[in-house]
Specification:
Distance between the termini: 25 Å
Order of helices and strands: HEHEHEHEEHEHEHEHEHEHEEEE
Radius of gyration: 20 Å
Number of helices: 10
Strand order of the largest sheet: 2-1-3-4-5-13
Largest sheet: 6 strands, parallel
Bound molecules: alpha-L-rhamnopyranose
Length: about 350
């Protein structure tokens, strides 16, 4: 399989659909693994419930489970707080599920609970937002962190003429994924964009209202703000909603990571020019197949382990137990209607 290049490719719709959408068709092809013996019951634990991004991941995970005859149950907290997932992990361990598939709100806060679950025989897959590697078997990564960071910096640079004040509207302050991307974005700006000044980073906690309020506060704090990068689907949608009815619409640029369904209206009304993401449905699908491969002892999470992920094909476990889905993709007015997730 192909590993990522570091550049965001704006592909044609055809290539794109081939790369992103094809898990939608196809039948009961058992892509997988035979052996093993554990329960293919999977508990899916997103950062919080009610986020369309994780709803799409669940759709993908359920589709995969349908193919390998497993079962996916989603549970999770209302708020994306560091240790809010612990009680759900404990319950899954008591239930003796085959695997937990988790997007972590914090790299360490859920580690003890995860390791207790592993001691009790539960396989642990992190996806989307990792824990420390010692706390899980495999991390299913949506895209190379460097590529995700560079994509967002390239987009904002393009939209503001490569100069001016920029702020970041992130998710929860401890989120492993956003924090990794932010660090790399800071490095990318420092190295390659001398006229862009990163003035602030604020946190909307992947809560729509808080993200909306933080956007309003940023715009009043920096009257000469050129742009906002929001590396969270919740944040960018809330910021776009705020901007779309404000005087700054079309004056303050907004980009980051969003789902096409949430952002379509803001692309069409000119609030947003372009943003990036991967396919969260494919991410859930791959995470579920990874869980199944662990349950069946087809892989242990060692570098070099390979397994079949249904329609997505064969994957290889990389360094630190990482499995990589693919590359980020840029959405704009030319392709936004080609997607529905
Ligand atoms: C939000 C969550 C998720 C992240 C996406 C981009 O939905 O924070 O973890 O990967 O945004």
């Amino acid at each position: 399989m192909k590993f990522q290049s570091r550049r965001v490719a704006v592909l044609t719709a055809v290539t794109l659909l081939a790369g992103m959408g094809l898990t939608a068709c196809g039948g009961d092809d058992d892509g997988g693994s035979g052996g093993g013996g554990g329960s293919a019951e999977i508990t899916l634990l997103p950062k919080n419930l009610g986020n369309p991004y994780f709803d799409a991941s669940r759709t993908g995970a359920e589709k995969a489970a349908g193919e390998f005859d497993g079962e996916v149950t989603e549970v999770g907290p209302d708020q994306a707080a560091p240790d809010a997932q612990v009680s759900y992990i404990n319950t899954a361990a008591q239930q003796g599920v085959g695997a937990l598939v988790v997007s972590a709100n914090d790299p360490t806060a859920i580690c003890d609970a995860l390791n207790e679950a592993r001691d009790a025989g539960v396989k642990v897959v992190t996806f989307d937002s990792d824990t420390d590697p010692e706390c899980r078997d495999v991390f299913v990564n949506q895209a190379d962190a460097q590529g995700i960071a560079k994509a967002q910096v390239d987009l904002i640079a393009e939209q503001i003429g490569d100069k001016g004040k920029v702020a970041i509207l992130s998710a929860a302050a401890n989120a492993t994924n956003q924090n990794a991307w932010i660090k790399l974005m800071e490095e990318e700006i420092a190295a390659n964009h001398p006229n862009i000044e990163l003035v602030d980073t604020v946190y909307g906690d992947d809560d729509d209202q808080k993200s909306f309020d933080e956007t309003a506060a940023l715009l009043s704090r920096y009257s000469d703000l050129a742009g906002i990068i929001s590396p969270t689907t919740v944040g960018i949608a809330a910021a776009a909603r705020y901007l779309s009815t404000s005087e700054q619409k079309g004056k303050v640029a907004l980009t980051g990571l969003g789902t096409p369904d949430q952002m379509r209206a803001y692309i069409k009304d000119g609030t947003v020019t372009s943003f990036a993401l991967w396919n969260p449905e494919d991410l859930g699908y791959l995470a579920a197949y990874t869980a199944e491969a662990l349950i069946n002892d087809d892989i242990t999470g060692e570098e070099g382990d390979t397994f079949e992920a249904g329609e997505l094909g064969e994957y290889t476990v990389g360094a630190d137990g990482g499995v990589l889905l693919g590359e980020p993709f840029v959405f704009d007015e030319t392709n936004i209607d080609d997607f529905n997730f």
